[in-house]
Amino acid sequence: MKRVSILLIIAALFVGPLTAQSALKGYTVGINVGLPVVGGAYYDNTDFEPVFGIVIGTPYGLPLGPFNIGANVGIESANGLFGLFAIANASVFETPNGPISVFGGVGLLEGLGIIGGASYDYAIPNQPIVAKPYLRGNLSTGAANDEPTYWIHLGVMVTYAL
Questions:
Q1: Comparing C-alpha atoms, which of 113, 27, 41 is closest to residue 77?
Q2: Between 144 and 102, where is the model more confident?
Q3: In terms of DSSP bridges, do strands 28-39 and 19-20 run parallel, antiparallel, or are they unpaired?
Q4: pTM over 0.85
Q5: Is the pLDDT of residue 116 over 90?
Q6: Mean of the pLDDT values across residues 39-63?
Q7: What three-state secondary structure class fits 6?
Q8: Exposed, middle or buried, 133 (CB in 10 Å: 0-12/13-18/19+)?
Q9: pLDDT tops 80 at residue 4
């Protein structure tokens, strides 16, 4: 119960200043698939499980200097663990086909979970679909018999604008 309360407090701190951003066009729904490539002591580097998840993007964000921070949520099975995250992302470089973004999040992942990484958002021409190959680091405080552990994985997320 204590972990949930801390997450609710963190979420409440971010919800207040969120505003709808015109650059974020609306809600999206996405499917996330990945495979760990490096793991902490808890994982044998040959015994990884795939990552599968669902991500919902919102039209809400927080302007922070030159960046618009987007707010998203995700639920996934991550390397054999179940996780629920609140995720913030920011575009750091624009390309003709889409931005390169960084993202980070906190949530529950057999304890407190922290994620962070980078993605390239490739907009499929004339379609409301974006393919996002990414590299992501993951940390769980409770996956290894209540000991912290980590893994890094490569993946792709495909989102559809509603």
A1: 113
A2: 102
A3: unpaired
A4: no
A5: yes
A6: 82
A7: helix
A8: middle
A9: no
154's tokens: 């490569």
What SS3 class is residue 80? coil
CB 133 within 8 A of CB 34: no
Rounded to a whole number of angstroms, the CA Rg of the chain reads 16
| C-beta of residue 40 within 8 angstroms of C-beta of residue 67 | no
Domain that holds residue 52: 2-161
Question: If residue 162 lies in a helix (H) or strand (E), which one and from where to where?
Answer: none
Tell me how many domains the chain contains: 1
DSSP string, 90-155: EEEEEETTEEEEEEEEEEEESSEEEEEEEEE-EEPTTSSEEEEEEEEEEEEEEEETTEEEEEEEEE
Degrees, nearest 5: CA angle 27-79-33 = 40
Any residues with CB less than 8 A from the CB of 104 and at least 6 apart, and which? 87, 88, 89, 114, 115, 116, 117
CATH of the domain at 88: 2.40.160.20
